[in-house]
Amino acid sequence: MAALLVDYSSSDGEEPASTPAATSRPDPSDPHVRPASTHTVDAASLRTRPPSAPPPSDPLALAASELSSDDSDDGGASRPSGSASPVAPASPRSSAEPPLPLPLEEEDSSPAPKRIRQFAHVDGAYATHVYLPIQASAALRRSLDRHASHLRAVDAGAEVHRVDCADLHVSLSRTVVLHQPQLHAFVEAVRFALRRSRAVHAAPVYGPHTLANDTRTRFFSAMELIPNTAAHAAVCGMVDAVDGVMTRFGHPCFYAERRLHFSYAWSLSDIVGGCPLSTESLSVSCDVAVCRIGERTTLIKLR
């Protein structure tokens, strides 16, 4: 039988493409045979080797890498456009920044007590109030200051707080809640209802009187417009006009007992003590009405 000879000595060191499939296994001792190259892979290195990063030329892969590595607590704030390099996580909130405000229902350690919200907060709902900001005479301001100091001295256990003169007002309505679609129509209705109302000048007042809010969570020391006077009648006419608007919008009218007053001191506990104020030149004036909805105020000029 003729022997089958195979030549493994090609000039470039590669096996000829025409090598028969029946070729026998080469003899490792043959000097003309090159052993196949081998590459040993350490299994442990495969387990510990980090995954390769996506090539920078792939913008989608690069964006995915940036998003997956973003651990900042910036609340989803957008980065500047055109930035191609990864952004470092945001640093923790600086201790120099002011703390977030407490909810209105909570108390904190500040000297002045927190007022308690009368209505639960609902998105799109706004507390609404119509009132007359008043201008107090100089004699009245002095009398109010003296009486507030007297209240603090009489009851040291009660924290009595003076209302700033810029915030003195006579209410023309209860505080009600309106929703966003009603706001513009309500303001225009109040403006139309008060279009013939006249300003009040030197309206005589008397007091003091102790009053409380509907829930008796706050107490007030107040002065009232003297009944059966032209000024009292004029303000009653404004209350009647605003009551008509409240009825149209499905809200309660003003209190049946018309105590037209302004509060100049308040406390979270019942206010006790007090003495009648001097009656010399105690008067107020007002030439504008205010419709306050949330934090927005609309001024309505009186004639």
Notes on the protein architecture:
With 303 residues, the chain is an alpha+beta fold. It has five helices and eleven strands. The protein has helices at residues 43-48, 59-68, 138-154, 183-193, 230-248; strands at 125-133, 135-136, 161-162, 169-171, 176-179, 200-212, 219-225, 261-267, 283-286, 288-293, 296-301. Strands 2-9-6-7-8-3 form a six-stranded antiparallel sheet. A hairpin with a 2-residue loop joins strand 10 (288-293) and strand 11 (296-301). Helix 4 runs antiparallel to helix 5. The model is unreliable at 1-23, 37-41, 43-51 and 53-111 (pLDDT under 50).
How would you summarize what this structure contains?
The protein is an alpha+beta fold. It contains five helices and eleven strands; from the N terminus they run ααββαβββαββαββββ.
Present the secondary structure layout.
Layout (H helix, E strand, L loop, with lengths): L42 H6 L10 H10 L56 E9 L1 E2 L1 H17 L6 E2 L6 E3 L4 E4 L3 H11 L6 E13 L6 E7 L4 H19 L12 E7 L15 E4 L1 E6 L2 E6 L2
Antiparallel strand pairs: 1-4, 1-5, 1-10, 2-9, 3-8, 6-7, 6-9, 7-8, 10-11
Number of strands: 11
The topology string of helices and strands comes to HHEEHEEEHEEHEEEE
How many helical stretches? Answer: 5
Low-pLDDT residue spans:
1-23, 37-41, 43-51, 53-111
**Main sheet: strand order:** 2-9-6-7-8-3
pLDDT averaged over residues: 73
Rounded to the nearest angstrom, the distance between the terminal CA atoms is 134 Å
| Beta-strand percentage range | 15-25%
